[in-house]
């Protein structure tokens, strides 16, 4: 990401952010509410376009793509996980997980579905509807859905924000395993210092600017930095 600006009227949600994320890296983005975390994540993921600046994914300039190009990029090279799971209630777990493949007109590989479901601990739940699952299980379905297309990057916006502490830890452990064992590149917005401590690196945002970073952070270090940035 090079010199990203995003303005809404006179308000600068992003005020010149330059950030490089390496292949296989797990980066957490933190900052006070309104500091631009979601805007940055959405611009990085091709869900939103910056007012100026450039975004690259691998060799592709994301900011040079037209809307069909962006749609294809999101479908084929990027995975998303949101706080609210965003599962389709009428579909069972298997059909929710494989939805991105069917939307892309790609064949559903049953062996791959089984492997990913097992990876996220849902091997015995494929026939269940989302309403029959706990919050943690629903977020695992959303994660499996994000992984089914082998994305180069998974972007997650507050993926544990709706989960209780223990379930959040389980999902975070799973995310970290995907990074450590499968080399998944992962970018996660969070306001939880403990969640951020699962990342290799935490980048801090304040008022649309980068405000430092921490490598291999402890929850205490992250919490202290957040206090300095004026977050409650
Ligand atoms: N669609 C929008 N229209 C106007 N202002 C927006 C819009 N989206 C975000 N903002 C503003 O941009 C700033 C950054 O928002 P956001 O990226 O959502 O922050 P965060 O995720 O860190 O809480 C906030 O002041 C927010 O009100
Ligand atoms: Mg946000």
Automatic annotation (TrEMBL):
PANTHER family noted in UniProt: ABC TRANSPORTER RELATED, IMPORT ATP-BINDING PROTEIN
GO cellular component terms, semicolon-separated: membrane protein complex; plasma membrane
Keyword Transport applies: yes
CDD domains from the UniProt entry: ABC_MJ0796_LolCDE_FtsE (cd03255)
Keywords: ATP-binding, Nucleotide-binding, Transport
Domain of life per record: Bacteria
InterPro entries: AAA+_ATPase, ABC_transporter-like_ATP-bd, ABC_transporter-like_CS, ABC_transpr_LolD-like, MacB-like_ATP-bd, P-loop_NTPase
Name of this chain's protein: Putative ABC transport system ATP-binding protein
GO molecular function: ATP binding; ATP hydrolysis activity; transmembrane transporter activity
Record's keyword annotation contains Kinase: no
SUPFAM superfamilies according to UniProt: P-loop containing nucleoside triphosphate hydrolases
Phylogenetic lineage: Bacteria, Bacillati, Actinomycetota, Actinomycetes, Streptosporangiales
Alphabetical list of SMART domains matching this protein: AAA
Source organism of the structure: Streptosporangium album
